[in-house]
Structures
1.
Amino acid sequence: MGCAYTLSKKGVHVKVDELKTDVGLFKNLELSVGRIIEDKWTEPMGPTPFPEITTIRDWDMKLLQRYKPFYLPYCDVCCLCTFGKCDLTADKRGACGLNMADQQSRIVLLACCIGAATHIAHARHLVEHLIEKYGRNSPINIGGLNIDIEAPVTRLVCGVKPEKLKDLEEVLEYCEKQVTHLLSATHTGQEGSNFDFESKVLHAGMVDQVGMEVADIAQVSVLGFPKADPEAPLADLGFGIADVSKPTILVIGHNVPSSVGIIDYLTDKGLLGKVEVVGICCTAHDITRYSSMAKIVGPISWQLRYIRSGLADLIVVDEQCIRADTLAEAQKVKTPVIASSPKNCLGLENRTESSSEQSIADLVEGKVPGVLILDSDKVGEVAVETVMKIAPKRNKFKVIPKIEEIIEAAKECTECNECRRACPNDQSIPDAMKAAAKGDLNPLAEILDSCVGCARCDSACPNDYPLHSFIVKAGEEKLWNEKFKMRVGRGAIQDVEIRNVGQPIVFGEIPGVVAIVGCSNYPQGGKEVAEIAEEFAKRRFIIVTSGCAAMSMATVKDEEGKTLYEKYSGTFDAGGILNVGSCVSNSHIAGAAIKIANIFAKRKLRANYEEIADYIYNRIGAVGLAWGAYSQKAASIAAGFWRLGVPVIVGPHGSKYRRMLLGRKDKEEDWYAYDARTGDKVYVGPAPEHLFTAAETKEEAIVLIAKLCMRPNDTSKGRAIKLTHYIDLHKRLYGVMPNDIHLYVRNNADIPITMKDDILKILEEKGWKETRIPDPTLLPRLIRKTKGE
Amino acid sequence: MGLKEEPWQKAEIAGPKKALLILKPEVVATMVKRAKRPLMVVGHLAAEDYSEDAKMIDYAIRISNTAGIPVVATAHVVSEFIKRGFYSAAYMPAMDIGDRLADSEWKGLDGNGPYDLALFMGLPYYMEFVILSGLKHFSTNLKTISLDRFYNPHASWSFPNLSIKDWKDNLEIIVNKLGGN
């Protein structure tokens, strides 16, 4: 017998030239098996390991039948091919045959592919970098003895249990393949159904969660970040936190190795304390997880105000959410820039292989505005040596105008309204300029509170006034006094924390887990997220946060000068406010829900996606709020939660994501689930009512959060608690009782005692009838017994 | 003030099909009178925008009272209606009412059938922009009117960009033509 075979973790291929057996002679026999799993994990493999893009489609369709897309086209045409612009208005179809619903879902898929690819590429870079630095066999350790389930998302989706850094490579290969398939589906002449596009959106969200988890568990394992620590240290945050007498390096982005290179170089050279290292956006999260000497300026929307203020003597950018005009803005204040990511080269000369001395000299002498260095250690050396030399020369040069200059400019303002019409938040800049012309800068200063830092006002002004800088100057005094404390990202949730709260969450006695995450494209400024968080923390919900929202949450102090992080526990328990970390740490929020199903409810985890999602959807009162979501990454993060059955609310700007997933509580037939005990189909009410919606105001978001925490499995005690919060908030913020209480009361025991008389009256008016509390599931295969058995 | 028929937020371009300009407010009154099932959707800015003497919500109430048009208050603005002694406003999120209006089989707040005309006011400009777009594309028999001060191109008809004074004057004419004071 001639035989050749290849064997790897990815797959096995056996080729036999000739094989004699009892049943006959086989010639040129070839066998292929998809992959071999090196199995140290004793749990049997579940039904969907490494799912392909249609594997979980049935589950998606169950969700999409209940939460049908409501499309909000941002554009009436499609311009993606050389047929030219196709008018898709109403029931028209384009030259390729797609209609408007198809096109909107296609655009949503494109956005989610961009988001997922960004996290997965981030993870790929991190894993390769960390393997190079720390070795392929570095163990995955994100919580020591407190965490057995180190990678709940990866285990659930892929069916593998990563133990070492090298194990993450196979997981990333899977993610990369999926994103490639998904992206290909958006090509002209591919997918032709909006529901199938939507299913693929959910798939993109799922693999995005895997990619995020890989990125964070890799960096937590080897970079010394807090490991699932409820008492992670407090970091300084704010515009005024840096000691401006020192050379200051500003790091912006999401991918931390170049920032680590800076801290390591400072440490190695004994320069700690002589240079300030401050950050914006998620790199700031992760560098404060790495080093207590780093500080956080603030969220992504604060980039321009900080750069123009001239406080940074050198800027290091890595990847994601960095303003594309960073280099141009930095040049205005004579600040050199080091780009450190292949994804964001800024047109700069690649000095990775050049001598550090040459790069330092060129930057200090201003021969080049910046350099590209794709080596984190070299970034550290060049950044530190450059900033030490250039800081005295720069002398914090800034382009923020003087008050007199603003007043003079304001006198010339024609109030043409171009600035206001360019402003995402419709700020009354012309009125503020009118006041400024009379010497009153307060209206301009007030605009700063709700300014998202986009500077579209600058671009729009026909007089070329730097209006954003005017606003920053007007609010300068307040800005400089902004010094806050934020608990640095703790990473995952401990298994023991899950054991403690699993039952009260599933029974509804802890009324909900609210994940306040995302970017800073807020309608009314970042303080609203702090208000929302505190509202629910006081009500003994669990608040988890990450990214820019976690930073904004720190920017409110009480009368004693304490921020939320100083007032509330960082434990995953009722009334806790936990910062898990950067964008990629969002995976730990999904991981916590998954671990509740696995650890508390003993549901099998391994490659068992549908059952776990069904469990989360029907039992775990979790809601995501991305109040300032703007990015494609935020879209894919949300999609990952949708597929797990967790509803997500976005702020009003999130309506521009072009599609909501809305339930119809007025359609009773939409809200039936199986009772797993009997197989009966049982009305469970619209819980949760929506899977994705945009709230118009903070007040609406608060009421929605309380409502969307209800789940079919709530015990009567739990439902009564949840209803109490929903009704109380509705009455306080809307001035009336909710008009849908009858849909959430299943029996008399569900009715909050203190509201019993009012509610009974409503139930009577509505012709309410008692329903039973089932063991709810959308999956027929989970029915333990069918009728007649 | 920009050109009258430009979207207020300049880059929010719509088309080929764009809202017809309401140059004579009497036309709105006529359309309301002709509609069999009109509805008014009022967002939270109705109680916040403009000056104290020109609240949108007060016009909404006058139009509703005069023409008997049911009101859906979005976000938390129902509380402002109640404060003004207007108790008949229904309330639901803007996305929910948008979704229902896009459904030609929705029987309406009262169960008597789908609406044929929806008047919008008081939503954030960009949110109203996309909801009106959803209705333009996916509702079959619904016409929409934007009564905000700014041109919103995805409506069937919209006011142009107006000064506060002109906008108030227009709304006064509509109320009067509907038979109110």
2.
Amino acid sequence: MAVTDEGLVAGMAAGDSQAAAAFVRRYQARVFGLALTIVGVPATAEEVAQEAFLRAWRYAGGYDPRRGAVASWLLTITRNAAIDVVRVSHERPYEPDTLLGLLDPQAERPLEGWPDADRVRTALHGLPHEQAVAVVLATFYGLTAREIAEREDIPLGTAKTRIRLGLIRLRDQLEVTDD
Amino acid sequence: MTDRPDCEGVRPLLAEVATGAATGPERAAVLLHTATCDACRTELAGLAKAADELLLLAPAHEPPTGFESAVLNRLHEARPARRTPMSKRSWTRHLAVVCAVLVAAVLTGAVVWQATATDRRLAAEHRQTLSVAGGRYLKALPILSSTGVRTGTVFLYQGEPSWLLVSLAGAPTDGEYRMTVIDRDGVAHPSGACQVRHGDAVEGYPLYRAVTEIARIQLDGPGGVHLEAHTA
């Protein structure tokens, strides 16, 4: 029987290199995929993905399962590493097509074994389109409300409202599907 | 320096902090408030969980050949060096020292435990606040002028992401102040600038190194004005 995600993280926290190898094999496509989505350049994405696994290895002892699944924890680390790189380079390489793909009901299906992605996709589709765009831009690309306002050509207050209402509604819908 | 933010002021910012869209000062205000407000802390945790789950939608891509071995090599290099085995005599001496320290610690701890209930509650709240954004440290340092007059505060936060916040009140001159982070090896890292108006400024910046690696932060303004904050 396969070791659980939590078991692998616990192994990494104890310095077990075999647990780390299994963890990397299990998540490398997800981590590299997210990094590529954000930075847009394969060579940079590879650097970001490596950095994400390094941070996961260092912070494994701080993982708290009460705060979310291992996949979310690792992908959040990856997102933060990618945004660090984007901010240093002062480039905004996000592709509108990638963003629209996330919002498209007919978009690429998640990998087998990732049922949570379908649940989240359904919740995201439940949002008004403009709120979903604002939440995705902020969450994936780390855009501030001001940057979203400039990109969407809307007042700053409107951008803030879209992020707030969109995320609250997304949270509520995810909580409903959790029940 | 600033008024402590209340629930009414913080609630509209929680979603932006949860997604990462908040500015440095906004994030600092929210973290300051959630350190002592259970309701806002719970709300922030729920929103952050939803934002994190959204990342599951990113399409998967197989990385280039050799990725796994490259990662494992980096993990191996990052692993702390293994200690050399101690001799039996050395081991016995270490054990005696450890026992003595433990006994002293237990006796001292019993007294301190009674006297520091408030501090412990505050520390627990602080840890819980840090945990919302994967935080490790939150440190505040006074910013001093060359004559030793306090002109502001710098906050250093180590988490996901790490950031620093410079707050000036009563800076000697207005204009652009260049900020430089100096690490413990003495290497200077130019880290941006802040605009001071009427002696005041509040600016947040991403932090790309561990808080423990930082020795001091200096701000150089118009007319040779030099301000510094030391970590130790």
